[in-house]
Amino acid sequence: MADIGTLNRTAAGFDAVSDQVASGPRGMRPRRFLSPRNIMLYGTLFVAAAYYLLPLYVMIVTSLKGMPEIRLGNIFSPPIEITFEPWVKAWSSACTGLNCDGLSRGFWNSVRITIPSTIVSIAIASVNGYALANWRFKGADLFFTILIVGAFIPYQVMIYPIVIVLREMGIYGTLTGLIIVHTIFGMPILTLLFRNYFASLPEELFKAARIDGAGFWQIYFRIMLPMSLPIFVVAMILQITGIWNDFLFGVVFTRPEYYPMTVQLNNIVNSVQGVKEYNVNMAATILTGAVPLIVYFVSGRLFVRGVAAGAVKG
Amino acid sequence: MTGQAYAGRPNRLLRNLNAKIASIPMVLTAVFIFLGGTSWTVFYSFTNSKLLPRLSFVGFEQYERLWAAPRWIVSIQNLAIYGICSLIFSLVIGFVLAALMDQKIRFENTFRTIFLYPFALSFVVTGLVWQWVLNPEFGIQSVVRALGWTGFSFDPLYDSSIVIYGILIAALWQGTGLVMCLMLAGLRGIDEDIWKAARVDGIPMWKTYLFIVIPMMRGVFITTLVIIASGIVRVYDLVVAQTSGGPGIASEVPAKYVYDYMFQAQNLGQGFAASTMMLLTVAIIIVPWAYLEFGGRKRG
Predict the structure, then answer these.
(1) Nearest CA-CA partner of A264 in A64, A116, A61, A91
(2) Which 3 state secondary structure label does DSSP give A254?
(3) Cα–Cα distances in Å, from A190 out to A120, A185, A238?
(4) In this complex, do B173 and A51 lie within 8 Å of one another by their Cβ atoms?
(5) What is the ipTM of this complex?
(6) Is the pLDDT of residue A146 over 80?
(7) CB contact, 8 Å: B234 with chain A?
(8) What is d(CA B256, CA B248) in angstroms, rounded to the nearest whole number?
(9) Which among A59, A152, A297 is the nearest to B129, CB-wise?
């Protein structure tokens, strides 16, 4: 698919810059750093950066203030008295309806959803991508096309039939059901990712292994798997952030006691009862965003590849 | 590649058996969920199912009711405004940022990290942060008023005529980083010689961008467009978190309409009809693109 071609170029493009530095002086005479052009350029970039950073700053600052200070001051001013109480409260005693055990429940639910969903979906999609790339059988391309086109169908169209199927199987509302749903909807993009990657590996490797008598699973586990670590990492980044950030499936396919963190966060912040505690809300918001943010900052360039691929996800 | 060699006459079904076993989940998903589920929903949108799906056909009645419902009309209008604005703004902002980033600037990595981090956050988090920043009592409005402009008014989330723009601001904050990344990749793919040739000919930079570089990046633009567009139709959690559709029904969107009718109002038929309309919208976007991307190439 054309998208993936672009994405791979994404990663290549970022590396290209460093090469130019090494090749010695060329091009125009260097300009003074404080030329009008540079002031414009960096000025615009700094203003844009400020716009992107502002909400994060406001979130952190608000979560460290006490409620009286929030009512008096403005949202941009740094806290006079730093307090971590909102964080503690958000984690362990914020209320959703009658339940007052904080976001920790949602956090652990999200962990229990994200880890198995990530593993199962990647395991299935990687083997499937491998079969599509190296062991084509009649009709495989037809099913694959349906899968990719299906990625663009709005989820809302398919939700209810899935609810019925899961209810018939007796797992509607459980974590197992949600894990299956994540596996299903992660399949198009992951299969595409793995199929393209395996197809890009030299075919001679596969042929040599075949001549040596290796079978389907042997080639997969002993040759393909060890060679494709980067793509597994990309897939993991994609799935962890995607599943962690999911809201719709969590709300549709689980019972309240299994709600993932995003759903619980929304229920805490947008609950109509009680006095609004903005500092607790913001602490809860940061806590929910923390996992994907950490994944983002740790993975760096691979994340760009992951999200760019994931953006095609439907 | 033929499968394993079997003694005697190979059975057609058993050939390449492992690959077929490995593809079972894909086949099941493609056939039963994507094809089957979609057809099922479209099929039942012609019934008057309420709490449970029932097979009593009413023709196009659900659709007539849908298009007569003020809430659906508002949803469609919002989607149109939100869609057009976010397409234009995210393409323009994304491209401009990418062009700036492409000027061999210092700290490029830092800037990219800053522009892209919101994309790692969920729509729920995005919606809640902007709900707070745009809060009229404490947020931007009150800060500007405290600075002296006491008449300053900026409370998009509580003004039903502009609430959708409040959502747009949050959505742009979350999504433009990705557009910037895709565009930057496109710009890096442009041959350096093009720039040199343009410079030799004395063409001003903005003209080079507008008339040479952008037409060359057609593929990137189309890909980005499809990505943004299919995201727009699906917008749901952002609205739920930021405004819950309010004030009143001013910021409703189709995806929320579907959810509410299916799981809260227990009027499945309406939900199915609305989701079928969403499917139609996506088809209108995707089919021409797929035709351009794949149809043309095979023939050409």
Answers:
(1) A91
(2) strand
(3) 12, 9, 9
(4) yes
(5) 0.86
(6) yes
(7) yes
(8) 14
(9) A59
Helix (H, G, I), strand (E, B) or coil at B257: helix
- Distance, CA of A205 to CA of A67 (rounded, Å): 64
Catalogue the long-range contacts made by A142-146 (C-beta closer than 8 Å, 24 or more residues apart): A143/B23, A143/B26, A143/B27, A143/B30, A143/B31, A144/A191, A144/A195, A144/B26, A144/B30, A146/B30, A146/B31, A146/B34, A146/B35
Please indicate if any CB of chain B lies within 8 Å of the CB of A62. Answer: yes
* Smallest CA–CA distance from B125 into chain A, residue: A285
Give per-residue pLDDT as tens, A212-231: 998 899 999 999 999 888 88
User: What Cα–Cα distance (Å) separates residue B90 from each residue in A47, B124, B172, B243?
Assistant: 17, 20, 6, 22
Q: Measured between alpha carbons, how far is residue A194 from residues A140, A147, A300 in Å?
A: 15, 14, 21
Q: Which residue, A128, A134, A102, A73, is CA-closest to B2?
A: A134
pLDDT bucket at B222, cuts 50 / 70 / 90: confident
Q: In this predicted model, what pLDDT tens digit does every residue of A40-90 receive, in sequence order?
A: 889 999 999 999 999 999 999 999 988 888 888 788 888 888 888 889 888
Q: Does B253 touch chain A (CB under 8 A)?
A: no
B-contacting residues of A 114-133, CB under 8 Å?
A: 124, 127-128, 130-132
A67–B contact, CB cutoff 8 A: no
pLDDT tens track for B100-151: 998 888 888 889 899 999 999 999 999 999 999 998 888 888 888 888 887 7
Q: Say yes or no: A197 contacts chain B, CB-CB below 8 A.
A: no
Q: How many CB atoms lie within 10 A of CB B45?
A: 24
